[in-house]
Structure prediction request, 401 residues.
Amino acid sequence: MYQRCIECGKTYEDDEIVYRCECNGLLEIVYDFDKIEVDKEKFKNRVFSVWRYFELLPIKNREKIISLKEGGTPLYRCRNLEEELGVKELYVKNEGANPTGSFKDRGMTVGVSKANELNIKVVGCASTGNTSASLAAYSARAKMKCLVLLPKGKVALGKLAQAMIYGAKVVEIDGNFDKALEMVNELAKEGLIYLLNSINPFRLEGQKTIGYEIADELNWEVPDRVIVPVGNAGNISAIWKGFKEFYELGFINELPKMTGIQAEGAKPIVEAFKKGKREIEPYENPETIATAIRIGKPVNAKKALNAIYESNGYAESVSDEEIIKAQKLLARKEGIFVEPASASSIAGLIKLLDEGVIDRSERIVCITTGHGLKDPDAAIRACEETIKVKSLDELKKLLSS
Ligand code: F0G
Prediction:
């Protein structure tokens, strides 16, 4: 197992701390599958979680693993939504069911375990909220110091509360996520922190298990399409890597179309896709109610666009209004409460069905990336006011209305 540049192919040892290649290309982790002994049956007998796939993850010493029992999230068949939208087979993979309430835990259990193997004492990240909540939790368990940089006033309340209670050094900056990321990048370059943003390829290895789990749960019959909310663009790249590896290992015979959804006010990847390009033009002032994906300069844009093009997928954007509508629809039709960024996958599905890009006979999995309670303010704002009554009679009337 080693690190390899996706641009020039230069390789680096797995214990070398580099976040980018000399040529500035992004790095990915590569395995020699001929030397790894795995088969589907071996997995089946293990607990359904990230570490079920230990041999395909970049940690050598099991004793170094820092875990809060992440992954193994539910894949819900959504029959009410199927009926509502007129689609044949729709699933939601609910990543809000992870220990700190988002898919980031998959990345952090691997990223922080790697840091532990490397004997790292100080970790850090920039975040729109979920990455910081997750890193704060895992680093606490690993007895590491943790620094998180957040865009002031733009982080949902639940996420801020998490980072604080887990004991991270929480710094709010005047500026957006992209600015915060530049700052932690500098600290990482100087060796002052071990960076656990998704530029770190070890973290993405944990997140690829979303792809593994979907294939595993659907009995090795992959869906036609996987729809993913996109911000810094690591997750869609990681999920695609997961599917590709299972394909290479012969566990699955097909690959899904990776479909990325961004918010209207922060959609550089969608714009690049629609122009058939592989380079993005950054947004200086990204804006959306889905604060988790309020990102103008996605670090993993190249990987994400590769995933979308290679898989014959698609990229689309949705408005804040469409996001909130989808959030309510998912909660009210299926009992699944997700944060606004997560609902963008459902909003994207609805839009792409209307546009005729997605066929109603497809087998579709939408990834919902974070729990609804992360952002209680957004949920309350999205709903009608609560009802006030003055008497039992009024209450009875309410029931009959
Ligand atoms: N959904 C949620 C709930 C997120 O928190 C994020 C990213 C994404 C989707 C997008 O994932 O960046 O891999 O494309 N949140 C990061 C954070 C940026 O700091 O918590 P991506």
Summary: DSSP finds 15 helices and 13 strands in the chain. The pocket of F0G is lined by residues 102, 104, 127-131, 198, 229-235, 292-293, 339, 341-342, 369-370 (CB under 6 Å). Residues 67 and 169 are 21 Å apart (CA to CA).
